[in-house]
Amino acid sequence: MSRREIREHLFRMLFRKDFHEDAELNEQIDLYFDSLEEPKEEELRYLKERFAKIIDKIAEIDTILSDASSGWKLNRMGKVDLTIMRLAIFEIKYDEDIPTKVAINEAVEIAKIFGGDSSGSFVNGVLAKLA
Fold this sequence. Notes:
Blueprint: H1 3-15, H2 22-35, H3 41-56, H4 58-68, H5 79-94, H6 100-114, H7 119-130
């Protein structure tokens, strides 16, 4: 599985967070994994661990995002854009193996795939303020 594929899976997993209670989240993630075609056990383990680390830092990530997106409250942002930026901020702030430019570029590319017409530029603008 490529790093892009990992990010896309994490995006899909994190996207569920805003639509389900915390108690249901593990079940939702298990359902997501059941929908994957022939995943490797080590890939599933890596995704679960990475997802848990992001969820553990979500309050801090949201604070960072709120500060960086002056004029935009998190509840006003599109859920796709919000989720993509949460993933990117985790990579920027808490993953020393991923350069900031790579995290931002990947976030913009994922926003172009899953977001609206202006998602890429919005994500880029907010994350550039962080960098």
